[in-house]
Predict the structure of Tyrosinase.
Amino acid sequence: MPELSRRRALAAAAALATAAGTQAAAAQGAFAADPHSHHGAPASFDEVYKGRRIVGRPSAGGGHHHGTGYAVFIDGVELHVMRNADGSWISVVSHYDPVATPRAAARAAVDELQGAALMPFPAN
């Protein structure tokens, strides 16, 4: 096994730093902010996905939104979403499968529901 030289160590560190910076930039691009929203929230969306209407928009925050300031609905019923510390999003339906955006969380929930209705989540 070749010995680790100072030059090789510095080159490896530079390559890792470049890769980390590229990943961070790509993650920021996934959260394209709506210029009319607050706190850099993801852009609003309203679409039909697999026959279900999914809507997402910045919200007033507080309450049972876990401080995200973003609300997601499937067929008019709120899907509770939460943004993780790493910038990924989860929902009560797909809690252990983080995704890049609230839209992706809504789509993952529709996939997981397999046609079943989303039941309202009781607020504390």
Q: What stands out?
A: Strands lie at 45-49, 52-58, 70-74, 77-79, 81-83, 89-91. The CA atoms of residues 83 and 90 lie 7 Å apart. The mean pLDDT is 79.
